[in-house]
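Quick question, first post here. What does this chain look like in 3D?
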Amino acid sequence: MALVTVTAWGLNFIAIHVGLEVLPPILLCAARFALTALPWVFFLPRPKAPFKLIAGYGIFTFAIQFGLLFGGMYLGLPAGLSSLVIQVQVFFSMGLAALFFRDVPGIWKVFGALISFTGIGIVASHVDGNTTFISLLLTLLSALSWAIGNIFSKKIAAQSPLALVAWGSLVATPVMLALSYIFEGPDLIVASLQNVSTDTILAVLYIVYVSSFVGYGIWGFMLNSYPTAVVTPFTLLVPVVGLVSTAFFLGEELSSWKLLACLFIIAGLVFNLLEKQIRALSSKQPKAV
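> Answer (accepted):
Ran it through. Tokens below.
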């Protein structure tokens, strides 16, 4: 399930790139959430949780996270690098889970996180003139919003993760529509919709049905079933899929430093996944001769 999720999310950055070629970022978000919510909220019962938690989940996991992410990509952060930078959410998620749920990660998970963070540092050190500081900052804030959304998801513990995705998207839809009207304006909205192509429609459908329903449906199930510190490290594989797929489909350069960053990220993931085995090996005492 984790590998299906990270593959869906890694390829999603290609769909976002294609969508942003025609639609402005906030309008693309609004279209995504509207199609994710409707008509499904009429068939999927609202999760049995206070509405304020559902609203918090929709605002942070969807509206803020993707508004910032799409904005960062729109302003110049390449799709492959975006898939890598947003993985900072793993560290935010671990810290917030420890704060709110006392879900404290072990020393080897922390060590693995630091190894992976080295990979993020490699990306930051190679930001060039084509990537503005604001686009990088927006993506980092998007990662923080994702981590906060994970806390809401764990508190809700929805029996049907798909229902939570649909109802969370319903909350996000009017917010993004209002923001699109205010900041992007009716003229840009109308002009963009008039230029929608088949590729744009396919990209939006992928974002809605594969990334949202498949990806977040499985993600919500895993967060409910396993500790946050066990689940979130899997997302460190998203940039590996993202960088390779964007190099293949979009022609983005897969340079040596990007491969090195991926290597650090995967190494950190190994430490997280094999924490028990590593701890067992490190605790073994040498046999007496």
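The mean pLDDT is 86.
DSSP finds 13 helices and no strands in the chain.
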